[in-house]
Amino acid sequence: MTAASILSLSSCEEMELAPEGSTLTATQKSEVYGNDASKSFSAVSGAYMSMSARMPNEEDIKERHNDFGYPSVMLMTDANGEDMVNTDNGYNWFSFEIDFRDRSQDAYLSRIIWSDLYRYIFSANAIVASIDPASEDKSLKFNLAQGLALRAFSYFQLAQLYQFNIVGHETSPCVPLITEENADAAAQDGAPRATVREVYDRIYSDIDEAIRLLSEAQEAGASRPDKRYVDLATAYGIRARVNLVAREWAAAASDAQAAIDNAAGVAPASISDVAKPTFSSVDEPNWMWGIIVEETDDVATSGIVNWPSHIGSLNYGYANYSSGMKISKKLFESISDTDVRKGWWLDEDGVSANLTDAMQKAWVEYAEATISQYYDAYTNVKFGPDKGIIANDCNANDIPLMRIEEMYLIKAEGLALSGGDGLSVLNSFIQTYRDPQYSFSGADIQTEIWRQRRIELWGEGMSWFDLMRYGVGIDRRNCGFQSAYVYVMAGNDANLLWPIPYVEINANPALSTSDQNPSGGSPSPVRDSLASVHDEKVSL
Predict the structure, then answer these.
(1) 491 and 472 Cβ atoms separated by less than 8 Å
(2) Which residue, among 102, 495, 486, has the nearest Cα to 328 in the 3D structure?
(3) Using a CB cutoff of 8 Å and minimum separation of 24, what contacts does 346-349 make?
(4) Measured between alpha carbons, how far is 483 from 489 in angstroms, rounded to an integer?
(5) Other beta carbons less than 10 A from residue 135's beta carbon
(6) What would the mean pLDDT of 430-453 be, rounded to a whole number?
(7) How far is CA 102 from the centre of its chain?
(8) Residue 520 carries which DSSP code?
(9) CB 271 within 8 A of CB 434
(10) How far is CA 478 from the centre of its chain?
(11) Tens-digit pLDDT profile for residues 172-183
(12) Which helix (H) or strand (E) holds 399?
């Protein structure tokens, strides 16, 4: 589904009203939502639930087992980079990302990313349009903030996928900018690509207002029911990410600290907390924001059309047949043996210190072979199965969207690049929560923080966006990829940008083929060679 067709729904989509069977137009729905906080909250809940829908694009691209909402975007982008190694053996639904076949404007994968993110924007626009921004009702303020935050998040992801970093590309074409203000006109006449600066101005405007509204709502006693919704700390976290990409270092550090200060009841996971497979429930005390999946949700009952099916090595799913998702060999080898995170992956002998004897026995029995034979070295065991049950086929894992640990790393980077003491923040965080023997005193602290982010946030849909904001390109040498997929790509390689789907260009009157991102052609593999992660330098 194109952005234009999604937006055209704003003028014709109807909602059934049981039991009378009558309908409300979108305009009438906005009026109802605006007058009833419970109804507008239902719209908010629906918007967040759509982030983990089973095959939301089925009508447009038919049945695809890698189509399950925003977690699909997380896996697609991670698989594009160099830190998540996986194979093309016929069972891997993310193999097109390995060799960049997803960069065709006709590829269904490009349509998934575009349609998903614009679908969230459409939902956000409907929420924002339905609520009076001058309302003093604390619940309506909270609901309005949800729409604004979701829209800011969605445009932020789009901006990083369809154009290079804002710094140096302020006037470059980005993505169509559609809000409640121009949605009707856009549905009729289309919308051109806005500049990167224009898109970021909207992102900042939306997240700034969301922070203000959430602060006022919180002071009035409003709070989120659970972690699927954005609270004040999460909103600060989103803005901290935006400031990091925009290289507003001091502001990034300040927002990260504000996120930490406002994250009531949230603290970094301890060494013992992460010395076992985990990262599967929003109830974990280090999660700030996540997608909640219920056992009865279609995405869970499908068994295999979900995020844990593809990335989870300890539960039932495609990973059992695709040989699993692995960490880059050179990144794994950069992790100290005293760092608890080394056990998030199998070592060269197929063993992880983070798996108990009982876990290993259950896994071996499930695999009907030894772990080293069933999964290759460096396969992840970071993400635990639902309820910790090995071989669980329910796959009702929650999906992490933001953890408090990220805020400490943003704070460290922001301080280090703005003249503050980011080194102490980094050392204290790693020593306390991951590796008591860690100590860093080198001059290139930004590269070291990047390495820590790559380890800490592996598999959580963050690695690609770091590659793009640093502008370092891709170097898959000595990572463990199949020889046909060992690429070295410069930071300005055209293949790094996603193409606008052809169906969007065809359906949007304000776009033409000249508005398409340039194609880099198929990347060519290079000869594999030894390389150390420590040799990689961030160049800003």
Answers:
(1) yes
(2) 486
(3) 346/371, 346/372, 346/375, 346/376, 346/377, 346/378, 346/379, 346/380, 346/381, 347/377, 347/378, 348/377, 348/378, 349/377
(4) 15
(5) 15
(6) 97
(7) 18
(8) -
(9) yes
(10) 26
(11) 999 999 999 999
(12) strand 399-403
Specify the amino acid at residue 533. Answer: V
* Distance of alpha carbon 258 from alpha carbon 27, whole angstroms: 37
Q: How far is residue 94's CA from residue 210's CA, in Å, rounded to a whole number?
A: 35
Distance CA 192, CA 176 (A): 5
Q: Is the alpha carbon torsion for 488, 494, 497, 502 positive or negative?
A: negative
Tokens 């990313």 appear where?
A: 113
Model confidence at 322, pLDDT cuts 50, 70, 90, reads confident
pTM beyond 0.70? yes
**Both tokens assigned to 54:** 């089973």
Distance separating alpha carbons of residues 226 and 289, to the nearest angstrom: 9
The lowest-confidence range among 27-36, 139-148, 214-223 is 27-36
DSSP state, residue 354: T
Amino acid at 157: Q
Residue 49 token pair: 């639930």
Please report how many Cα atoms fall inside a 13 Å half-sphere around the Cα of residue 89, on the Cβ side.
14
Hunting for tokens 């009707």 — which residue is that?
184
Q: Which amino acid is residue 416, in one-letter code?
A: A
Identity (one letter) of the amino acid at 407? M
Q: Please tell me the distance from the alpha carbon of residue 54 to that of residue 67, in angstroms, as a whole number.
A: 7
Place of tokens 């992660």: 533
Please give the pLDDT value at position 231. Answer: 98
Reference 245, options 168, 180, 184, 183; nearest CA is: 168
- 3-state DSSP assignment of residue 540: coil
Residue 272 and residue 234 in contact, taking contact as beta carbons nearer than 8 Å: no
**3-state SS assignment for residue 241:** helix
Long-range contacts of 449-452 (CB under 8 A, 24+ apart): 449/409, 449/412, 449/413, 449/416, 449/422, 450/538, 451/331, 451/334, 451/533, 451/534, 452/409, 452/426
Least confident of 9-23, 57-71, 142-156, 517-531: 9-23
Q: Which of 41-45, 269-273, 475-479, 529-533 has the lowest mean pLDDT?
A: 529-533
Residue among 357, 384, 385 at smallest CA distance from 371: 357
Chain centroid offset of residue 328 CA: 19
CA–CA separation, 261 and 249 (whole Å):
18
Please check whether residue 346 is in contact with residue 377, taking contact to mean a CB–CB distance below 8 angstroms: yes
Q: How many whole angstroms separate alpha carbon 382 and alpha carbon 481?
A: 20
